[in-house]
Amino acid sequence: MSARERIGGPLDRARHVMGTVADGVRDRWAGAPRWQRWIVYGLLLALAIVAPSPVIGSVMSPYTDWTSLLFNPIGTYILLAIGLNIVVGHAGLLDLGYVAFFAIGAYTLAYLGIKHGFTFWPTVVLGMGLAAVSGVILGAPTLRLRGDYLAIVTLGFGEIVRITAVNTNEIGGARGLTPVPHPPPIFGEEFLLDPLPYYYLVVAAIVLAIVFSLRLERSRVGRAWTAIREDEDAAELMGVPTFRFKLLAFAIGAMIGGLAGVVWAGKVIFIAPPNFPFILSATILAAVLLGGSGNLPGVILGAFLIAWLPERFRGFADYRILVFGAALVLTMALRPQGLLPSRRRKAEMADTGTGSGALGAEVADPTSAAPAEVTK
């Protein structure tokens, strides 16, 4: 027996076991009656409410303050991943500059609050609106591109926003802006440096984003995004206005990213351009792909793991990032389509024979032979 066969045998068995468990959970959930789903929703919400408990924190994060970790990065990453999943998972558009919309939301709160005395709640709406407009501005001239070309343009947009912030003195330049205003008290609870009220604020934002995303997914808009992701040319021939729906995906994803930026900035007090590096976009994209692009529960799970595991491995000191990277590599080797992919998305990835599937709506090689039939 060759070395490759000795390695491949256990790896294939592990992949099969992991796939069977994950697919069984997904299929059982898909066939569950509505009352069972509402019970699970209620239990998950109750778990989110009691999650800051010190008992849970002693197990989940023995090296870091658990409540602070729940707000950032866990809560922030989950909210960002929900927004990016609309662009990448639903519409199939590869966005490498998503951090730009996060920055726009954060700078909206900081600039309007510090320079013009705006309070928090009106700025939430303005930050989401400006981020959505920025998504339209980015998408309008670039969404004719596909695949790698679109990814390069979005990467450039993220860097443009960061460099513009560095060179614009009106918004603090390289020095940044401080003090970013806190949200006003809610039910007598002050938003100062205590991370607990911010955690509940980000939980409320995540719940709203989940409901909004699910409603979109099950609507005519969601079906149009699915058609575009599977085959943009065929969707356009069938009468789907592909450009309009891709632009809508960019705007909605950007809006949720702007919301995350506003909520995050209200806690950190000080923001500066180095807070918005390209690596943050790559990290959120990794969370979406790890969890299962296009499947909201999988995306949330992926974002949680990406945010939580480095802190849980903090006891390994200088080796924690190495251990974290090894865990990601092992997971993707065993489950390349993501931990909890949707059945439709899994079928698409199986057809392409790769872990990323048709991500980015790549254009087929015109010299290649067309398939004899299309399977459903």
Radius of gyration: 21 Å
Order of helices and strands: HHHHHHHHHHHHHHH
**Poorly predicted tracts of residues:** 1-5, 360-376
Shape: globular
The major pleated sheet works out as: none
DSSP summary, beta strand count? 0
The amount of helix comes to 55-70%
| Average pLDDT figure | 85
Query: How many individual helices?
Result: 15
Q: Could you give the distance between the termini? A: 39 Å
Q: Give the DSSP E fraction (strand runs of 2 or more residues).
A: under 5%
Helix- and strand-based class? mainly alpha
Keywords:
single chain; 376 residues; mainly alpha; globular; disordered C terminus
What can you see in these coordinates?
The chain is mostly helical. The protein has a domain of 209 residues. It contains 15 helices and no strands. Helix 4 crosses helix 12. The longest helix has 28 residues. The chain is globular.
